[in-house]
Amino acid sequence: MSAHRGEFSSKAGFILAASGSAVGLGNIWGFPTNAAENGGGAFVLMYFLLAFCLAYPALMAELVIGRYTKANMVHALQAIAPGRLSKLLGKLTGFYGILVASLILAFYSIVAGWMLAYFFEPVATLLGLETLASWLTSDSIVRNLVLCFLFLALTCSVIVAGVEEGIEKWSCRLMPALFLMMAGLIVYVMLQPGAISGLKLYLIPDFNQLLDPKLVVSALGQAFFSLSLGVGTMLIYGSYLRPEESLPTMGAIVTLVDSSIAFLAGLLVLPALFVAQQQGLSIYTESGSLIAGPDLIFQTIPALFKNMGTVGIWVAMVFFALMSIAALTSSISMLEVPVSFTIEHHATHRRSATWLIGAIIFACSSVIIINFDALFGLVVTLATEYSQPLLGLMICVFATWVWHRDLVLEEIRSGHPDVEQSLFWKIWPHYAKYCCPILILVLLAQSFINS
Ligand code: PHE
Fold it and tell me: End-to-end distance of the chain based on CA atoms, in angstroms?
């Protein structure tokens, strides 16, 4: 559409950036802790099923709309809608997506700030700065504000540089680093006594729990959150994708990379939990379930590293650097959603749009930090458990009910000439039209009933 729009310069650039968006705290923290809470292997199995059968088709809907319209979510959904009413619905859905992306970024940067704190803490310890080290793990409001600010400033500075020089360049540097650090840590943890018990819990499914409604809803939410769906992130990344790339292949690679990293994170975190038990740390809550969530990441795991002595200081640094990097490649993709809208809608410069929106998001994060107990959980649930699947459903509806099927086909064909003969085209249009919306609705209704 417009000449100033950025573009990923290579296939690998897109894959790393989109996987960078997908791979985040959701994979390294959310996936293993969800698995720990929901019967280990049974959750892993259900997650893989839903990621490929529900989230991948929804991801395809976003990518194809994005690349065809070459626009942000508000403009994109309006552009493919034929009538006045559907255009209005497109506009509302687009704004809802931008709002949810911004809310996710607001709480995500608080958690990412904690990751930075736990990364700096061992550095401060090594330098002998004991007061700083204990402030970093103090959980005070000021600490949370300062580190959240730092993380958002980092995110803004990547986004200011644009698509190729910012998003693509940094994703290509950070993603391989993330993978290497993770592989190293897994090998290290696996060699410690106790690791095998965690591995068993993680890999052996308890089939009785497989259809437990709580497990299914958690796996669905996890799959949508992990693939960054519904909020226009993948739509906007699709809009920066060159026409000659094959969308079904790109989408499949991103889904595979994302699920594999989540799987690897489970190989790291759950065995680490049982290594901690071997060392005398308590890994069960008072109600008898396995420790999960913040307690796992910020108490059990750091305590485990402390027990390892000097080597533990380095292991802790690598672990929290890994978390911070994963968070950064995701947060840049969230910020790009409101920024690209502001640039395209108000003809603003990227630099001013980025810093302005960064400041607004920091204001939201500050409100959450100050009213943490009342707001944090609420924002997380509303944004990720309800809004993301609902928005994913709307995008599927736009791609298959509102938009013309021939145009969808034409767009996919540009990078995949024989798509009409492919299994993908035989299944996807019907599947995304009927099965995805119905399944998402059923699962959402179920989570309402259970809440
Ligand atoms: N997928 C990211 C993660 O797993 C989170 C995310 C959600 C990113 C929505 C962008 C948009 O951490």
Answer: 44
Q: What's the rounded Cα separation, in Å, for the pair 123 and 126?
A: 5
pLDDT tens figures, 95-121: 999 999 999 999 999 999 999 999 999
Q: Closest ligand 1 atom, CA of 330? A: 8
Q: Given ligand 1 and candidates 178, 225, 231, 257, which is best to mutate, with the most ligand atoms within 8 Å of its CB? A: 225
Q: How many structural domains comprise the chain?
A: 1
Question: Domain limits at 362?
Answer: 11-111+149-450
Q: Quote the pTM value.
A: 0.93
Q: What is the identity of the amino acid at 263?
A: F
2: pLDDT strictly greater than 60: no
Q: What angle do CA 145, 149, 152 make, to 5 degrees?
A: 140
Q: What's the CATH number where 292 sits?
A: 1.10.4160.10
Q: Are 169 and 328 in contact (CB under 8 A)?
A: no
Write out residues with Cβ below 6 Å of ligand 1.
21-22, 24-27, 104, 225-226, 228, 231, 233, 330, 333-334
Phi first, then psi: give them for residue 126, nearest 5 degrees.
-60, -35
Q: Are 19 and 88 in contact (CB under 8 A)?
A: no
Residue 303 domain-assigned (yes or no): yes
DSSP characters for 35-89?
Answer: HHHTTBHHHHHHHHHHIIIIIHHHHHHHHHHHHHHTS-HHHHHHHH--SHHHHHH
ipTM over 0.95: yes
Protein residue whose Cα sits closest to atom 9 of ligand 1:
228
State both tokens at 331. Answer: 């947060």
CA of 25 to the centre of ligand 1 (A): 8
